[in-house]
Amino acid sequence: MKKFISIFLSLLLIFTFSTQAFASVGNDGSTEQSDIEDSFAIPPLTFTNWEVLSLQIPNSTPMLSKGVVQDGIITYQVTVRVRILNNGASYGNKSVNWTTSASSSNVRIKSADSTTNSAGYTSATFHVRGMEKFPVSVKCAGLESKKTIDIGTRATYLSSFKITQYITAKESDYSGNKISVSGLTGKYKSAFLNDVKVQGSGVGDDGRYIKYYAGKFSYNKPTTALGTTPTVGTTIAVDPYYVPCVMRNGAAKKGHVEITGIGRRIAEDTGGAIKNFDIDVYMGVGRSSLKGIDGSYRVRFMGVNSWGNSGTGIKSSSTPQDEHGIVLDEPSCYSVDGQYMAYVSDIDYSKPNSVTVSVVDNLGKANNSEPIKFELSQSALSVDDMSINSNILAVTGHINPSLQIYQMFDIPNQKLLSEYYGYGFIETEYGLFYVQAPQHFSGESGHCRILNEDGRVLYESPDNVTIRDLRVSGDSLFFDELNLDTGDMSEKNISVFVSDHTLSSYY
Asked: Is NADP among the key words of this record (predicted)?
């Protein structure tokens, strides 16, 4: 009996010492360990130097559905790092496992280290949506350390943005005789009214706002996609797939951003001609309000319906600083055979036909031939794209968030061949295809329509659904539809030969 008791006490003593060798994790994420060290004990590890290496808005969100923005909620890409030490020394090349207890609809691990590096550091990158704070944990050698990462709302987009400008037409910018039209009591310049038809809104010499929609003029102020009046120094038009700008349950969700070199702006407007990382800045009434700001800029997201806040959690001092805005060179292009080179030679906002494109005949350059100059439509404020096919120059001019103009010029004969109003222009073996939306500033969501170069409507989208990214495969025309009510994106296709003769062009 005494021998049995002695064996029992010995086993109990061994068990007590063994259990003391294991560490426990406190509620605050700290690790507690025994000072006892033997061949069976877990090393006395410490998890230190928790930091956020980077906090940005990603270019895409494969880990979370519906793109960078879902229901007006932005997605963040957060990289977190921690260092693991063993008795104060780097615990390098050891296996680790990163996890999060947050819902998979809010937080996903994009990538994570499987081991520490030689200095004992390990990091993981998360996509986070709808949470300003989220929990993470890392395990190593049987120990777990937990942290709550406070990211706040402010973060810089990984991609830079292309910045353009748009305005409300002003009658004093135009010349010519004044005429009377149905719906208006006063007389206005014909050229001005033609531009109001294109832009959707304008201000007459009498100071009255004129709106055009569904073939009718009326006296009404311009309206943005969210129902506000566009305001200088505030309003921008964005792609709601990348910057929040939606109505949900009767309430607007407006993304607040800071554009480096331009300032803080609020997303109140959208349009089919603004997609991906594009921002159209509202500059005011008339061409005199336009500035030379077109270019590529870094953009910082601040918050939704407020200027937000920076996180109060641990931040790394190595977070990159914002770059300054870069004003890009105007677009230029060459013909395939190298004979012609086209470039934007002049932008003069003081006149209706502001933009001039010049074409140089490289074969005739030795003979000191002068450049051939083409003035774009009076509505065009800048050039989005250019191409030369054989002797034809095609120029896509920017007008406003919902509208571009596509003009084709005969270079040798120095004349305009044709022009089309819409956006998303693509040249194919079946000819030109493009999209039209209702006049901007009309306050009407309307339906987007796909047209061919003959002006026939091939397809009309449901109400409040934007058509994006036309492309042709075989004899089918593929495109994406973005539902502005739900944020859902879906792919559709139609035959290039189908047309709906009951519908017509908006312009």
From this structure: no
Q: Where are the domains of the chain?
A: 45-151, 161-297, 317-416, 429-506
Token digits of residue 315: 């931040």
Q: How far apart are the first and last CA of the chain?
A: 105
In 114-246, which residue ranges form alpha helices assigned H by DSSP? 190-199
Beta partners for 108? 127
What region does 151 belong to: left with phi over 0, alpha with psi -120 to 50, or beta?
alpha
Three-class secondary structure of residue 16 per DSSP: helix
How many whole angstroms separate alpha carbon 507 and alpha carbon 500?
17
pLDDT digits (tens, 9 = 90+) for 483-494: 888 888 899 999
**CATH code at 429-506:** 2.30.30
The amino acid occupying position 159 is: S
Is 45-151 assigned to CATH 3.50.50.60?
A: no
Q: Which segments within 151-239 are labelled E, that is strand?
A: 155-157, 161-170, 178-179, 188-189, 201-203, 209-213, 216-218, 235-238
Whether 41 has a pLDDT exceeding 70, the answer reads: no
Judge residue 483's burial from the number of C-beta atoms within 10 Å of its C-beta, 0-12 exposed, 13-18 middle, 19 or more buried. Answer: middle
Q: Which residues contact 387 (CB under 8 A, 6 or more apart)?
A: 333, 393, 394, 427
CB neighbour burial string for 326-348, b if at least 16 within 10 angstroms, e if fewer: eeeebbebbbeeebbbbbbbebe
- The Cα-based distances of 162 to 149, 165, 166, 440, 470 in angstroms read 32, 10, 13, 20, 20
CA distance 145 to 34: 16
CB atoms within 10 A of CB 506: 25
Cβ atoms 448, 402 nearer than 8 A: no
Q: Which two tokens stand for residue 429?
A: 């073996």
Spatial neighbors of 7 by CB under 8 A, at least 6 apart, are: none
To 5 degrees, how large is the angle CA 263–CA 264–CA 267? Answer: 130
